[in-house]
Amino acid sequence: MQTLLFPGQGNTDIGYIINILYMAMFLVLVFWGEKIQTMIRLRDIEYALERLRLMRDESVKFTKEKLKKYGKEEINRFLDNYLEFVTIPPVDMDPAGVVWKLDHIVKTAEDRVRSEIRQIIPDLDENQVLNIMNLFEASYALNYYYKVVRHYYILSKKTSSYILIIQLQAILPQVMMEAEAYLGALQAFSSGQPIGDGAGALVAARLMRGGEIFDIERDNVYTVKNIQGRRVFFMKAKGPGGAVGTPGDALMKLSEKESFKMIFMVDAGLKLEGEKTGSIAEGVGAIIGGIGTEKYKIEEVATKKAIPLYGMIIKMSLKEAITPMTRDVLNGVEEAHQLLLKRIVEKSSEGDTVMVIGVGNTMGIAQ
Amino acid sequence: MPSRRLRAVEKSPASLLVPFYFFLLGLLILFSLILLVQGVTGTGRSDSFTNMLFIMTGLTGLVSTFYMIRRYQVGVQKMLRERKMVVLTVEECSKCNYKAVRPFREGDYVYGYGEECPRCPKGSGDTAVENRMVITAIYLEGGRQEERY
Ligand SMILES: [Zn+2]
User: Fold this and answer.
1) Interval between CA B133 and ligand 1 midpoint (Å)
2) Could you report the predicted ipTM of this complex, rounded to two decimals?
3) Is B110 in Cβ contact with A192 (below 8 Å)?
4) How far, CA to CA in Å, does B75 sit from each of A15, A70, A123, A261?
5) DSSP E strand stretches across chain A
6) CATH number of the domain enclosing A342
7) What is the rounded radius of gyration, in angstroms, for the C-alpha atoms of chain A?
8) Cβ B61 vs Cβ B52: under 8 Å
9) How confident is the model at residue B1 (pLDDT cuts 50, 70, 90)?
10) For residues A76 and A64, is the Cβ–Cβ distance under 8 A?
11) Which residue of B lies nearest to A210 if distances are taken between CA atoms?
12) Is residue A26 part of a domain?
């Protein structure tokens, strides 16, 4: 009996068949190699797209389930409408004053959603309305990811553009990561748990403890405290509902009467991969995210009155920013709290008036 | 649990992909089994190499299909597992500094009131709030989410 190292080596029937198969495979790869690769890549994208769709459905289902206890059918219809809700940004050919227009449009959109939710379920308190809005936004984001990926998937399939497919496939892991973060946010949003983005608000809340709380403008609270002879204003969004507040408006209003010597801002910031979650970065400038309207207002005030803007960022990933606050972020909050107290004393002198703004979504954090 | 996900997949007309995938896997199992049986029963044949080849191919086919099914299951479970997060609430008594950690309950929020302090004597009846501890932190147990990627 002969020993065979490879099948197809001997002159048996099977050997011939295997040889022919090898030849056929070679020819197929030469002529249709790229086509096959395209198909494989498209299948990958299709799989991701299917996952995105499932995530969106899961998120919508979860939200509807959560709202079931209020017994209002209408809210489901409203959610479906909300997913396709569009906010048209103002024309920016003549950019002067465009920030105020954008501010107006965004506030109108928010007011509309708020009042509609309150109309459908009248027995909600303000905090619950805000948390539901956050839940809706998670579904909105997931739906948006799904629709955009689907658009490019269909487009690249129609045009069978190899480059388009590769580009889409290249960004997909990042898109999936972000979508998964939003899916993970549902739990926090639905039960009102503090999220990582609330780190700045939590720093402010800690410093505000014991002071008398005043409301100012839409969704903001502030207090005044004496820290080693300095009059320090602490401000954050009004909790424990998932509000981000309007610190720009509040600062504008407060600075009409007060003359601040300096402004400190604390916010959660996205870290680069490899950076440590909860680490602190200090800097200069208006440290606040969002669409930029609040940032603009704060910069306006600071520039007009020549107030230095100091900032502090507590670093975290997107996932950590919108899911329940982790231990690492909490440690960062503790560190920022101590550092901020130190910096206030270092940078200002006795008798100065100082502003401290804790930026971020204050869900699950009162004051 | 996975069946819930599968139902969602079948609902969409666009995705016949998953049933088709399982249909292919079924075919593969059948084919592998036939090969395996042929290989085992055909021992009377003179060409023992062919028998060996049949058995090997059959086994490889079976193992790889089961591996593929397992991988699909793991993928489904991973997505569902990701949602199970344990959030803890830290309560502190402002009078005696007693500190307690318990699982988060809906309605908890930082600087809201928690449960009554077990160490302090019960208050004078109606002023129950006075005896309640203050929630000082709410955080995700384990903390590190990065390793999931
Ligand atoms: Zn006590």
Assistant:
1) 7
2) 0.83
3) no
4) 39, 34, 41, 56
5) 214-216, 220-227, 230-237, 262-270, 280-284, 309-316, 353-358
6) 3.40.50.1470
7) 27
8) no
9) very low
10) yes
11) B111
12) no
Q: Does residue A32 belong to any structural domain of this protein?
A: no
Query: SS3 for A325?
Result: coil
Q: Label the pairing between strands B87-92 and B132-140.
A: antiparallel
pLDDT category at B54 given cuts 50, 70, 90 is confident
User: Which chain B residues contact residue A46 at CB under 8 A?
Assistant: 17
Quick one: A62 and A185 in the same domain?
Answer: yes
Q: Check: CB of residue A164 under 8 Å from CB of residue A291.
A: no
User: How many other C-beta atoms lie within 10 A of the C-beta of residue A146?
Assistant: 22
Q: Does residue A288 lie within any of the structural domains?
A: yes
Residue A253 bridge partners (DSSP): none
Q: In whole angstroms, what is the distance from residue A181 CA to residue A197 CA?
A: 13
The residue assigned the tokens 């320090």 is: A232
For every residue of B42-54, DSSP letters joined together read GGGSS-HHHHHHH
Distance from CA of A366 to the nearest CA of B (A): 6
Q: Which residues pair with B102 in a beta bridge?
A: B89
Structural domain for A312, as ranges = 196-358
Q: Is the pLDDT score of B77 beyond 90?
A: no
Beta bridge partners of A282: A312
Q: The tokens 């509309």 sit on which residue?
A: A112
Quick one: closest CA in B to A177, which residue?
B149
Instruction: List, as own/partner pairs, every contact residues A284-290 make where C-beta atoms lie below 8 angstroms and the sequence separation is at least 24, other chains included.
Output: A284/A308, A284/A309, A284/A310, A284/A311, A285/A309, A285/A311, A286/A311, A287/A311, A287/A312, A287/A313, A287/A359, A288/A247, A288/A357, A288/A359, A289/A359, A290/A244
How many structural domains compose chain A? 2
- Residue B8: pLDDT band (50, 70, 90) is very low
